[in-house]
Write a structure and sequence with these properties.
alpha+beta; Herpes Virus-1; 5-stranded antiparallel sheet; 5 strands; globular
């Protein structure tokens, strides 16, 4: 596991959440466990504990590496590439 993230400077933007829930799960009527927001484009997807793992799928589709928890009271960030908390 990497000790630090090398992507924060170039990939973190001032974005707003694209929806109030996981975009893909809302479209299909599915459920999620926790929400994550892409800090490059604002996409909201479900976490790795959710069966669909839409936040990770968004990373694989777009190569946007950094997410932030979209859960109330949480403010942590994660880089998929460096596997590091920010």
């Amino acid at each position: 596991m990497a000790q630090s993230c090398t992507h924060e400077k170039d990939h973190v933007k001032h974005v707003k959440p694209s929806s109030k829930g996981c975009e893909e799960c809302l479209k299909t009527g599915d459920r999620w466990v926790h929400l994550r927001m892409c800090l490059e484009c604002g996409h909201v997807g479900c976490c790795d504990s959710s069966k669909n793992r839409h936040a990770r799928a968004h990373f694989h589709a777009t190569q946007h590496p950094i997410i932030q928890s979209a859960e109330p009271g949480e403010d942590w960030r994660w880089c998929y590439v460096d596997e590091a908390y920010l």
